[in-house]
Amino acid sequence: MTPPARLHRPRVLLADDHTGVRTALERLLGSTCDVVASVGSGGDAVETAERLVPDVVVLDISMPDLDGIAACRQLHRMLPDLHVILMSGEDDESIRASALHAGADAFVVKYRAASELARIIQQIG
């Protein structure tokens, strides 16, 4: 017997300063999630999340004006039930620890995003 189809599509906000990465993530997640916005900075991510209240925010660690770690902390103060996934191009244990310490639900290395991100969002979102 197959499990019933999931009725809720997580509402996702993407934040990465590289347009190509955001576009790729939108395509990757489009079949399982509703991408409600895509922004290029941490400050825009915080402002947009406060306005749209998505289920999940995917943040790049390294962004202009407000990095992903600081944005994660701000988001959790404003929206304590919000799920946050932090991403980095570097697979570094100290970055992973900082992300989780800031309150991220998960840490994904960008080169693994295609195989991990949608699954993680479905689990937490």
Note down, in words, how this protein is organized:
- It is globular, with a radius of gyration of 14 Å.
- The longest helix is centred in the C-terminal third of the chain and has 12 residues, at 113-124.
- It is built from 5 helices and 5 strands.
- The chain has a 5-stranded parallel beta sheet, sandwiched between helices.
- It is 43% helix and 21% strand.
- By secondary structure, the chain is of the alpha/beta class.
- Helix 2 packs parallel to helix 3 (68-78).
- The protein has helices spanning 19-29, 42-52, 68-78, 93-101, 113-124, and strands at residues 11-15, 34-39, 56-60, 83-88, 106-109.
- It has a single domain, classed as Rossmann fold, CATH 3.40.50.
Short description:
This protein has 125 residues and is of the alpha/beta class. Helices cover 43% and strands 21% of the residues. It has helices at 19-29, 42-52, 68-78, 93-101, 113-124; strands at residues 11-15, 34-39, 56-60, 83-88, 106-109.
Low-confidence stretches: none
Class derived from helix and strand content: alpha/beta
Count, helices: 5
Percent in helix:
40-55%
Looking across the biggest beta sheet, what order are the strands in? 2-1-3-4-5
**Overall pLDDT confidence:** 93
* CATH A-level architecture: 3-Layer(aba) Sandwich
Main pleated-sheet profile? 5 strands, parallel
Give the overall silhouette: globular
Q: How many DSSP-defined strands? A: 5
What top-tier CATH class fits best? Alpha Beta
Q: CATH topology, what is it called? A: Rossmann fold
Could you tell me the radius of gyration in angstroms? 14 Å
Write the H/E string, N to C.
Answer: EHEHEHEHEH
Distance between the termini: 24 Å
What share of residues are in beta strands?
Answer: 15-25%
**What name goes with the CATH superfamily?**
Response regulator
Number of domains: 1
